[in-house]
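Quick one: structure for this chain?
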Amino acid sequence: MPLHSSTPQSTFPRYGAFTEARRIAALLRKETVGGILLVIAALAAVVWANSPAAASYFALRDFTIGYEPWHLRLSLGAWAADGLLAIFFFLVGLELKREFIAGDLKKFRTAIVPISAAAGGVAVPALVYFLIVSQHADLRDGWAIPTATDIAFAVAVLAIIGSHLPPALRIFLLTLAVVDDLLAISIIAVFYTDHIEVLPLVLSLAVIALYGLIAQRYRRFFGTHAFAAWLVLLPIGVGAWALMHASGVHATIAGVLLGFTIPVLHRRGDRDAQSDRPGLAEEFEHRFRPLSAGFAVPVFAFFAAGVSVGGVDGIRDAVAHPLTLAIVAALVLGKPVGIILTTWVTTKLLRTKLDPSLRWIDMIGVGLLAGIGFTVSLLVAELSFEAGTAEADTAKVAILAASIIAAVLAAVLLSTRNRQYRRIALRDAVDADEDGIPDVYQRGDGAGVGGPANSAGS
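Got it. Here's what it folds into:
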């Protein structure tokens, strides 16, 4: 079986650095657990919302709590969407910054393919949706529903089917998902903000700037005690979130901006760079990843996915609704088509070739996984249609159906490639020089050993 080219920039997807591959593998293991919990929470919500005790589910979701003068008297469902998802988007911001500083997005040559794929995976589904509902003015606001990828749900599918999807493809999928999450949250900020209160917005940005200043210089204030920095930064971050919420801009935007401020590399001269002490990014990752994957996202899914389908007649009506057709077509067809088409065009323009051990059918499988747009799609659906309306319920049913269809198709397709993936895994495990780093990560380009050097940048 052919190994990777000696000029790795001429092939994609790239393996990158061994340390980065190990970090991403650990991250995806956590997301797998979170994805399984997410699916369980969503199923529990659907069952409860269609059971004889359905009234208690909706009473719980709509129960309000909070301090009204601060505009924080919200239903539990709103707290999950505006509050808990801010944790998820904080990690999105942190991961995106890490990708730009130390990952595949660091260099234009390696960044352009996943960024183009993500852009295509946003634009084409939105276009498919809009074309289908173009004659229904009341449905057009939902055009952004099929724009995002639920990485937790996707890797849970891989775990359930026992796929040995190669690390390079997993990294590509994660990078693509992080970028299109950023695009989706940018769309929310620009297109789903009805009004803006200027003073709270300015104050929120000022608090985020203070947060970033402390985060960037935290060793000056706290030495090597990242945990102490975490205790100080947490209430400042909550304040920034509350002000952002009061401004009218969706509060999860604060999570992304706060994540961008966290330093992901050690500065030159930092003692942590030469020790086992975690840096601030590692500390926050350690603290917030389990909270996001194990609690925040599943709780949001529980409150967002619960919809009464109305029995057989309700299912029949939902299936025939143009909104259902638009969402399912956009996620199941538009997503993979957009990703594959833009990837193919980009690689042709750059004269980049697919890794010789892979086939375009593998990329189609990744595209189908990206069609699982569960979490952020549910969020956008709640912003697009008023709660309790037929459109809101139909959108949620369609998102559930589309995610299941995309997951099943991806599972079937990728399962047929498992034998080849096992061969790739055996090849990639070869460590001829017995230095603890597989040879596939040592290709003479400086990208395979240990990752980027310590940097003065953040």
